[in-house]
Amino acid sequence: MIKKIAILANGGDVAGFNAVIRGIVKTAENHGIEAYGFLDGYNGLLKNDYIKLSTADEGKAEGILPKGGSIIGSSTNANVFNYKITNENGEIEYKDLSDICIKNMQTDEFDCLFTLGGDATQKSARDLSTKGINVIGVPKTIDNDVACTEITFGYNTAVSVAMEAIDRLHTTGETHHRIMVLEVMGRYAGWIALEAAIAGGADVALIPEIPYDIEKVASKIKNRQKRGKNFSIVVVSEGAKPINGEMTIQNMRDNGNGVDNTKLGGVGQVVAKQLEELTGLESRNTTLGYMQRGGTPTAFDRVLSTKYGTKAMQLALEGKFGRLTVIKNGKLDDVSLEEVVGNNTEIGAVSGNTEQSNIRKVTLDHDLIKTARSVGINLGD
Fold first, then answer.
1. So what's the pLDDT on residue 257?
2. Full set of structural domains in the chain with CATH
């Protein structure tokens, strides 16, 4: 019988973290179950740093539905199976500290751990489950790239922010006869760029899944000029790359082994400069950046997050562990964390854009691709 549960939020912040936490806590409370939250993601689990979560008597989880970010913090650099530490000699080394996490869960008598996060978070969740911890994952990321689910919480809010940015860039572009480039997040998946481009009426959308030919993009813009349209809106995913080229990398971080240390960024500026040279039109780039992550969640994300949170707690009540809550065929469902990990089975292995990683990318036969082409959005090919 479940008596005591713990929640951790991990990875980049998104709108909807708190709504999921609230969904889990309220469902737990309705069944007489105590809820706690580890602070700052897997770091909190490792340090055994947690707080009580309650929606009653001005508790920590009260009034958090519209609040952005995470009331229990998060972490982007904590793979407990490959944890970065500084030894007595001042040298950096990596150790598997997962046994400490296992001991903490057992000592605290937590019956289940809920992991709110994306690819890397759920990879570690799966690894913990192989060591006997009752784990249930909830798919989070603005990138919408978690395997086995049709949508992640936080994504809709990010798209909405990007769409509003496109709306605003339209007026400046049209007034000053410029090419307005908007660089959005998404890492190795083009969901944000593609859906925001459709929603915002952009002319071009460059995504990681389709290497672009800048000459074809310029041709699209020149054709618009011939029709008297002396401005264009170009949406570029941060992971977009030219044909026979590589992604634009801002720098390589040192957040430890077992995490993706590649920091993307800068492709929007590259594309803007090239298009100005090829078309003769002034070009300006706007990098939306962390604006996509922050702020209050949309109504869609509030509902989705609440559905995910309540579903996760229901799975715990049913004794179904080692699972990830998902949306499949438009309905709530769940899959095994093994299925989410796919071929990335090595304990502590790096997540992200590797051959073994099972991240969800845009397929060329997806309805969004077909829709974009139908309304005349150039995809760079």
1. 57
2. 4-153+297-341 (3.40.50.450), 158-293+364-374 (3.40.50.460)
